[in-house]
């Protein structure tokens, strides 16, 4: 429904990411490059998944269990890719530290590493929002709107924008938690991220039932808030630890 | 906060040069996508007959194989014209007619900004019903074109004006290319990427000859080149932006496409504009001059200036080139801007999902090319990797990803 509505839906999905981008990432060119490469990596993961599943589509939309398998396999693949992403990041960190030594600048601080993780997570979130929500928004710029049967109270575009917002939050902060978990060897953190991702994905299955989105979407936001809180706690703990180390 | 007392971290300035060249490329692509989505939604089948469709005019009713063969013929003709024009350019450069080339390039820029810009402005005026009269429009357009020519060829203008006009020229030419029929556009992109590869890497390639001539004579190649602002650091003396400095250092350059073909295209499209008012006389006169009009709208260079320290290892050069410790600036030929934007513009004609995918692919290709440049330290073509990735991602997205995403999204299932 008109350009204003289209821009509105886009901002619902990507507004917080835009703020994060302008506040933190646009100031450091390396983080912009990290964001772009992360988005590319997750796009490639989506393309590979769609290549694997192409033969089985279109799925019968009355039964829910093929979709469950689809979501489960996709999330498993993406979590595996996250581990690979971490390994590549480790190598990059070593190169950057060696380079810093050579030009006699300080090595990467803890906040630097967390910012790189944040940029990586934001790339993941932006990839999700762009491909699942933004690319389908083109009709929203026109004169009409579209409703889905299963969730007929609000337009489809708004529903997908809201879901995309929740997922962007989950993805962005999961990456920070995951990187920190791998760096510290913290099993809780390492397991937290895949389970939250899986739970969030499975919760969208609730949308399958008629009127299910009234229950599914608030639960999804619960997961997002959980992720943010856990990330905040973890970051606070690490920063105060490193501050204590510096002071002592 | 404790951060203010710490010395500046490594992350603050790493990679700045790459961003300075990525930003204008992204802006150009964004503008072309906007133009395409605004102007083409009115679904006017404005088929430009230009030199790129001289062999075969695509109609909707032909079979796929016919379209493919037709597109192939078109692209071969186009690439042949480009090759001939580049060789003529090399000849002129060899005979030291640089002044003539510069004047001719100024004239081409004027024509692009004046006529193509005017056409597109007219489309926009029509689309949005802007109330403006002819005389005002002519005066504004003339001033716009003249300042553009001055900005591109005089170095006394503020650099932001020069950069802005270069991006605008790239956008205008790219938009005209997107008006070509679909199959022709894709095959043409692939053909140009292959041509670029051949012209720069083969010993007999025209672009390589041009670069070697320019290097041996210590002269500038007269061409349109986008130059990112050099990164100045507080510890290094600010160097004047002279192109001669890089001759003494190690330099590695990327060569991209020269678009002398654009001029031929330009002639025919200009002739289309004029022939609708006058007869075909002008059209024939213009097209007859194709072989003589050989100046380029875009230069074959990505120029990477390095710092004066010799004996640097490749790795440090690679990272050094990303802005730390070097005052070098990356230059990118306008042909790269144009063909990247054509790819993205054509993707926009299908759907926005392909636009995002192709954008990421092109940026990745550009990054890879810059890394290869730092690794190999010699002239490299900038088109092939990006165009290859872009085309690949376009077809993958169109045929695989879209079905998958739409299936999931419409059932409100996301992960």
Automatic annotation (TrEMBL), chain A:
A matching Pfam family: Aph-1
First-listed, main subcellular location of the protein, grouped into a coarse class: membrane
Keywords, ordered alphabetically: Membrane, Notch signaling pathway, Transmembrane, Transmembrane helix
Assigned GO CC terms: membrane
Membrane topology label: Multi-pass membrane protein
Biological processes, Gene Ontology terms: Notch signaling pathway; protein processing
Superkingdom of this protein's organism: Eukaryota
Localization in the cell: Membrane
Keyword Transmembrane helix attached: yes
InterPro entries assigned: Aph-1
Transmembrane segments: 6-25, 30-52, 64-85, 116-137, 157-179, 216-236
Family affiliation: Belongs to the APH-1 family.
Official protein name in the record: Gamma-secretase subunit APH1-like
Source lineage: Eukaryota, Viridiplantae, Streptophyta, Embryophyta, Tracheophyta
From TrEMBL, chain B:
Membrane topology: Multi-pass membrane protein
Signal peptide segment: none
GO biological process, one term: protein processing
Primary site of residence: endoplasmic reticulum
Keywords: Endoplasmic reticulum, Golgi apparatus, Hydrolase, Membrane, Notch signaling pathway, Protease, Transmembrane, Transmembrane helix
EC assignment: 3.4.23.-
Source taxon at top rank: Eukaryota
Protein name: Presenilin
Lineage of producing organism: Eukaryota, Viridiplantae, Streptophyta, Embryophyta, Tracheophyta
